[in-house]
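Lecture 7 notes: from sequence to structure.
We start with the chain below.
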Amino acid sequence: MRGSGKKKRGRRIIRLVLLLLVLGAVGYFVVFKGVNRAVTVTYDTFTTRKGNISNTLSFSGSMSAKNYETLSADKAGTVRKIYVSEAENVEKNERLIRLSTGEMIKASFNGQVNEIAVSEGDEVTANQNLIQIVDFTEMTVSIRVDEYSISKVYLGQPCKVNLTALGTSFDTTIAHINRISSSNGNTAYYSVSCDVAVTEDVLPGMQVTVTIPLEEATDAVILSKSALSFAGDNSAYVLVRGDNDEMSQVPVTVGVDNNNYVEIVSGLTEGQTVYKVAEQKAAGNTGLFSGLQNLSTGSGQNNSSQNRQSRQNQGNYQRNTGGNMGGMPPGGMR
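Predicted structure tokens for the same chain:
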């Protein structure tokens, strides 16, 4: 009888062990394998187009008169005659003011009377300012170019002067570069100027932006820079959806970059749609797996099998989503 009881207990133990093994296997495949498959990926879409693209250097400055003069008396005397009035246009060598000393004040260039500081009959002293002449048709703009950009600037280089207040612009060229730094800080700056033939509504002191084009591509395939991803060697690629609805990485060669859009030299054609991973989201932890994880976390113990499973999930995750869809931002420039 005793032997029979021992056999029955042994059979019950064996059945219990087998049941636990079966439950463990089912739990592994249902819980852990299910987690591996539960990955949701959403994409942003972008479409290439034909167009022109350029990158530029941009600097702030202000308008100033290129030619102006303030005329004064050589000797003390009396103002006998004023021949002009304010805002009147005058020509070179035209008479402006005659003094009692016989001195005749004349314009030395074509311009406009900006200010008359005296009246007929006034007594004046030597070197006292009498009248100011300004040429408002020719302006100059000075900008400060930092040490990182000065090597890209040269005499005669085309540039565009944009007036903020008037919403107008003028094409001109770089006229002067002072190659001696004008600052003593951590960054060196160099004075660069350009001359501008302007309209009568442009006045000295108005704020401007000077843009200097560096590269330009016309009738090129253009793509938003946000669509690019980058491999470990920093080479650019995009995601393209295939006939089987799977994403594949297509390498692209980029050209002109203005920080918002890039020229696609090779790899894509006009009107082609590409994709960029917007979000990669694994399913939330629920059910038995969640309870086991919470129990492990609450006890403060690290489960080595869960760590191994996490690494396995990460590998499956990257294979399911085509690897690293993120990207390190490249340098750029507008």
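Points to note: The longest strand covers residues 207-224. The chain has three helices and 21 strands.
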